[in-house]
Amino acid sequence: MSEQAYKYLEKQLFNEKVSSYCSCKNQQYVLSMMVSYSPNPVRCINCQDLINPASINMPTDLFQALAEWSISHSAIQWLGFQAEGYESWTDTELHNINSSINKEGLDLRKHIKHEFPVLYWYSRDPEANNTNCPICNSHTQEVKHMYSRSFQCNKCDIALAP
Ligand SMILES: [Zn+2]
Ligand SMILES: [Zn+2]
Predict the structure, then answer these.
(1) What is the pLDDT of residue 54?
(2) Is the pTM of this model over 0.85?
(3) Do strands 29-31 and 149-153 pair parallel, antiparallel, or not at all (unpaired)?
(4) 41 CA to centre of ligand 2 in angstroms
(5) What is the pLDDT of residue 140?
(6) Ligand 1 centroid to 145 CA: how many Å?
(7) For residue 156, which ligand has an atom nearest its CA?
């Protein structure tokens, strides 16, 4: 990534106009639970609001990698939701745990896990009716949140869409 692109993302991330960041007492971070269309993919799984990036202690290289990945992830979702003809491609990318975007996301998560604990949001195929963990295939635990719920594998730190 060029210096210029990096500066742009940094500005976007820290000057982003966000109406409200998460203020939960017990924040639980999750990566890309919803479409961000921003360099910040970190949300609170409980209230679904974005986490203020300034509140996370994140080394610059990880911040950069996270921002790049978030833009790619958003672009894939944008194509599926807004551009005609990409729906099935987007579904394949998001629902396949071994797709490039999920592999990159999981790899990134492995690195940032040392800085702050974060779940990886897996957008499972709602028609497959399978809530087992896509990584270890274990039975997942249903967890209730403020507005929704998720299925979680504590071994793999992954959260599945309900
Ligand atoms: Zn919250
Ligand atoms: Zn698992």
Answers:
(1) 81
(2) yes
(3) unpaired
(4) 22
(5) 98
(6) 10
(7) 2
